[in-house]
Amino acid sequence: MTTQDASQQQTDRKGGDQRTGPTVVVAYDGSPASATALTWAAREAGCRRARLRVLFAADVGSGQTGGEEVLEQAGHEAGVQLTNEGAAWAAKVEGGPVEVAVETDVRLGDPTSALVEASADADLLVVGNRGRGALVGALLGSVAFSVTAQAACPVVVVRGETERWPGPGHPVVVGVDTSDGARAAVEWAADEAILTGAPLVLLAAWSPPDILATGYGAAHMPDMVRRSEALARDSAEASLAHARESRPDLQGEVRMVREKPARALATASEDAGLVVVGARGLGNVGGLFLGSVSHATIHRASCPVAVIRTRT
Description:
Layout: H1 3-7, E1 10-14, E2 23-27, H2 32-48, E3 51-58, H3 67-90, E4 102-108, H4 111-119, E5 124-128, H5 142-148, E6 155-158, E7 172-175, H6 180-196, E8 200-206, H7 215-219, H8 221-245, E9 252-258, H9 261-268, E10 274-281, H10 292-300, E11 305-311
Parallel strand pairs: 2-3, 2-5, 3-4, 5-6, 7-8, 7-10, 8-9, 10-11
Antiparallel strand pairs: 1-4, 6-11
């Protein structure tokens, strides 16, 4: 194998035809964080009646001794072993997919690029929030954040050391405002709530403009505070009404919080099964953009976070 060939991504898939039906892809490298993500993804795939693709990606680098081919072979063998173990585990998760609906995917190369490429034909991409496997450069860690800004499908970052799943006792919480990203997030969150049997909470976090605290603005603060709250409430209630138009069985409510959005979402995540945020991403390595709220949420939330991107 030439040096040029070695630098290219290598793939090895085992399982059924991944082009048929919905697909959930989960990044797995054997670390505790990826194991938690695997369990979450298995339940999500079962709920969606989707195929589950267990994906391992690692940049094995170039060695000073032994040659690149030896490193690549070792990396590939490790990936095959890990994904086979992960697939066997996923097939045993309660509520997860049946064994024939689980497939494996081993790729050598840049992990972020591998996951972004895998997202092109996936309905959902699931990653852990931190952790690294035995191989240097294996999945997760900072990769998770980069992928949320570039993936072609929704991404769930499974945070925390224990499994948290949306259901009757753990609502799907979605941050809402007047942006296109928030509207897309509400639609996705509403579908997720229906799938999992969880109530939907539209969190409208609002606060009056900072300029009102001093000078001329202070005299008009009571009126502007009322207007700010009314605008946030009207927007959230309109979003809920729109979501209910095609989902008459949706159990949802608007929750008003006078707080900065990132902090409000972090607080809400303490009881939520899933927090959903909208984000606008540029979709390339040179220009990552998620926005301050989505960025803060995936770093601070105490439950899984779904990032729903809209392209510009």
